[in-house]
Design goal:
With 233 residues, the chain is an all-alpha fold. The chain is built from 12 helices and no strands. It has one domain. The radius of gyration is 19 Å and the shape is elongated.
């Protein structure tokens, strides 16, 4: 599942270039100093990872609560179907629903602060931009969060989100260097691949929850119990 998190992040970076790519392209980096520019981009990515890790902690706690309530494998099935649903429903349609006034207000504040931070190229600003970028609503992040919940453990939830973030980092880091090559048309084309990969990861979670007895992919319920409770054996 951790390998799936990284690969899902790697595939999601295609989506990130389309949706968050403009932010990466507009980063206030020092274009006259390659070394400083690289450090600024790394700081920005560190901010994104910090945001994803924080979110993973919160949703790892949620998953732990479900685990203690006895929803171990059922949770994985629900998370898998949620990922498949996110892959099927267009993101703009999901974004059209105002689920919560306070949440939308928070997102508005994040965007406002993001705009202010974009005017400054200091390392503190780059870290802030990365953190704020990580908290912006995104269909791929939503899908990854279901994965973090399905891990049913706080450290594993954090690790799942960090690996997802690491998967998105290579292409997002390259975006400022490839700004002349990344056209709007190209971004639209590569985004068509992302739902297929998201659905595939969702299917993997569903199979994991079904406990079909396939090693590493869909272990049986008893093997998962033994792994979670090694002191009993």
């Amino acid at each position: 599942m951790f390998a799936a998190a990284f690969l899902f992040g790697l595939a999601s970076s295609l989506h990130c270039v389309g949706m968050c790519g403009p932010i990466a392209l507009m980063l206030p980096v020092d274009r006259s100093n390659p070394s400083r520019r690289a450090l600024q981009i790394m700081t920005y990515q560190a901010g994104r990872l910090l945001a994803y890790g924080s979110i993973g902690l919160i949703f790892g706690l949620v998953g732990k609560g479900f685990y203690l309530a006895g929803f171990q494998q059922k949770l994985s099935i629900v998370a898998g179907f949620a990922m498949i649903l996110i892959a099927i429903v267009p993101e703009r349609r999901l974004a059209a629903y105002n689920f919560s006034g306070p949440v939308m207000k928070m997102i508005s504040n994040v965007r406002s602060r993001l705009g202010k931070a974009m005017r400054n190229g200091s390392f503190k600003s780059m870290l802030t931009i990365g953190i704020l970028n990580g908290f912006l609503p995104c269909g791929m992040v939503y899908a990854a969060l279901f994965g973090a919940v399905a891990m049913q453990d706080v450290p594993n939830g954090i690790l799942f989100m960090l690996l997802f973030g690491l998967g998105t980092a290579p292409l997002m880091s390259a975006a400022p260097y490839l700004q002349n090559l990344i056209s709007a048309g190209w971004r639209q084309k590569i985004q068509k691949i992302v739902p297929v990969i998201t659905a595939a990861v969702g299917v993997l979670f569903v199979m994991r929850g079904l406990g079909l007895g396939i090693p590493y992919v869909s272990p049986s319920e008893i093997s998962l119990f033994i792994k979670s409770n090694p002191d009993c054996y």
